[in-house]
């Protein structure tokens, strides 16, 4: 039957109910996105205020949505010499010191999100493996691998492995025993788990399994202690999966992006591990310039905070975040939280550095 020969009423009577529900949901999501920022903040749950203690130099791409995601490496021997790797998703990867100064830039093209792990075998030696979601080919996702030299703060490209068909968005690493896995989140909500091997001259990857969310997703993080993967579905909420290679592929929703505790877009994800199983998962509530903490033990809501203007500017419209506990020197004695700043006054976008102790005290949570 040709649609042109049907009345509008006849057409809508024949539309599947699920299509109409999805259309209404899409319109509702668009309406929430379109609401002025002041309205979104007023409708959201109260957030406490913290201020940044530092910031990085702006990325090199001006007048554009360019800075995206950070990853932290902690120097256990000399915490003040720790490093931050950050993406300019239109140009490549930066390495910053805790003073915010640029230590290195590697032209890697359109790399979106980044993660790293220390103690990975690289070319036969233990080292710091950095991975980025490579979207230089929008139709075919790749994982770009790099080695970070802690002494020189330089990145060296190792090669790329296949991440599956689709546009690469998010990425996070997971260590299970001696194995290293990357979860690459594609734009359509597909999450591919890739077993990585960087021990030889050329890195290799093997797809282990595929997980699925229904719509656009990006931020992710894995708790290596418990083997749980957390993924943010931008207009829907925060989910968790079993990260183990032989685990269930089913998803459990932790929080809905309903405009209360979590405001769409739900973006970056980071973990604050405390003890053997406790701690918090943090997610960027991009829609109202806030960040939300949920308890790892029972997925319960723990609080919200914003990074506001102080001696250092605040952070707004945050995409990627990272968090690592431990001593990072006198400015960050209990841990470091890094957030992309999507509106860095008149300069290009950058990353803001916040002391975990300041966040935990403001929220009244353990640290």
From TrEMBL:
Residues 1-30 form the signal peptide. Coiled coil: none annotated. Residues 40-363 form the BPP domain. Pfam families: Phytase (PF02333). It comes from the Bacteria. Keywords: Signal. GO terms for molecular function: inositol hexakisphosphate 3-phosphatase activity. This is 3-phytase. The lineage of its organism: Bacteria, Pseudomonadati, Pseudomonadota, Alphaproteobacteria, Sphingomonadales.
């Amino acid at each position: 039957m040709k649609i042109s020969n049907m009345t509008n009423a006849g057409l809508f009577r024949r539309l599947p109910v699920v299509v109409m529900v999805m259309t209404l949901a899409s319109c509702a999501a668009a309406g929430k996105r379109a609401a002025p920022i002041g309205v979104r903040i007023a409708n959201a749950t109260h957030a406490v205020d913290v201020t940044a203690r530092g910031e990085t130099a702006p990325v090199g791409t001006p007048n554009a949505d360019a800075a995206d995601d950070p990853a932290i490496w902690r120097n256990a021997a000399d915490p003040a010499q720790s490093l931050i790797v950050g993406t300019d998703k239109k140009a490549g990867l930066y390495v910053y010191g805790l003073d915010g100064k640029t230590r290195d830039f590697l032209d890697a093209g359109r790399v979106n999100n980044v993660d790293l792990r220390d103690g990975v075998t690289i070319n036969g030696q233990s080292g710091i493996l950095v991975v980025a979601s490579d979207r230089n080919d929008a139709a075919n996702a790749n994982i770009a691998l790099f080695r970070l030299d802690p002494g020189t703060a330089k990145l060296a490209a190792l090669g790329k492995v296949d991440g599956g068909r689709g546009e690469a968005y998010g990425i996070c690493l997971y260590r299970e025993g001696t194995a290293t896995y990357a979860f690459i989140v594609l734009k359509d909500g597909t999450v591919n788990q890739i077993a990585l091997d960087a021990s030889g001259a050329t890195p290799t990857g093997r797809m282990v399994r595929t997980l699925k969310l229904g719509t656009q997703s990006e931020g992710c993080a894995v708790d290596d202690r418990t083997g749980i993967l957390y993924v943010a579905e931008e207009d829907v909420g925060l989910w968790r999966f079993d990260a183990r290679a032989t685990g269930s592929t089913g998803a459990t929703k932790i929080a809905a992006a309903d405009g209360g505790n979590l405001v769409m877009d739900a973006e970056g994800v980071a973990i604050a591990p405390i003890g053997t199983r406790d701690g918090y998962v943090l997610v960027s509530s991009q829609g109202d310039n806030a960040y939300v903490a949920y308890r790892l033990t029972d997925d319960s809501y723990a609080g919200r905070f914003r990074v506001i203007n102080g001696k250092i500017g605040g952070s707004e419209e945050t995409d990627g975040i990272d968090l690592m506990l431990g001593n990072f020197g006198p400015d960050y004695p209990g841990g470091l939280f890094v957030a992309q700043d999507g509106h860095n006054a008149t300069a290009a976008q950058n990353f803001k550095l916040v002391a975990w102790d300041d966040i935990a005290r403001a929220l009244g949570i353990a640290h």
